């Protein structure tokens, strides 16, 4: 069986501190999505726990190759992950596996801006 190395880099897009309006969210609390917060969202238990979670849940699709999938998503003020988008694709099978893993994740610690929990745009890369 092949040995899989998983490399995970957390990327934060941009240096913009202004909120963006997002009309797909239905309430006022969901309307603002930040790209930078005073405290950025984090996986429960930190980065080591995030690496462990991905390693233990990864199912490498048959017939695929080594590649990096970039996933963009929103961490809500409640810590839920939503609105997954692939920003760099590795083909349907690996993209779907990356999104499947992200959807399995428990709630994260939400981002905080000016003392309030806020929605934050976030990116993760998963190397297969």
Characterize the structure shown.
Helix content is 22%, strand content 31%. The N terminus is likely disordered. Strands 1, 2, 3, 4, 5, 6 and 7 form a seven-stranded mixed β-sheet that branches. The chain is built from three helices and seven strands. The protein has a single domain, classed as 2-Layer Sandwich (Fusion Protein Consisting Of Minor Coat Protein, Glycine Rich Linker, Tola, And A His Tag, Chain: A, Domain 2). The radius of gyration is 15 Å and the shape is elongated. Strand 4 and strand 5 form a beta hairpin. It is of the alpha+beta class.
Which features does this protein show?
elongated; 7 strands; 128 residues; alpha+beta; Fusion Protein Consisting Of Minor Coat Protein, Glycine Rich Linker, Tola, And A His Tag, Chain: A, Domain 2; seven-stranded mixed sheet
């Amino acid at each position: 069986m092949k040995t899989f190395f998983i490399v995970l880099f957390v990327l934060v897009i941009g240096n913009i501190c202004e909120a963006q309006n997002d009309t797909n969210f239905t309430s006022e609390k969901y309307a603002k999505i930040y790209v930078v917060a005073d405290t950025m969202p984090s996986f429960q238990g930190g980065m080591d726990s995030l690496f462990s979670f991905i390693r233990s849940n990864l199912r490498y699709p048959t017939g695929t190759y080594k590649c990096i999938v970039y996933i963009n998503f929103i961490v809500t003020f409640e810590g839920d992950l939503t609105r997954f988008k692939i920003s760099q694709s590795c083909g349907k099978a690996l993209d779907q596996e990356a999104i499947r893993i992200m959807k399995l994740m428990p709630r994260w610690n939400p981002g905080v801006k000016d003392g309030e929990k806020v929605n934050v745009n976030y990116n993760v890369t998963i190397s297969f």
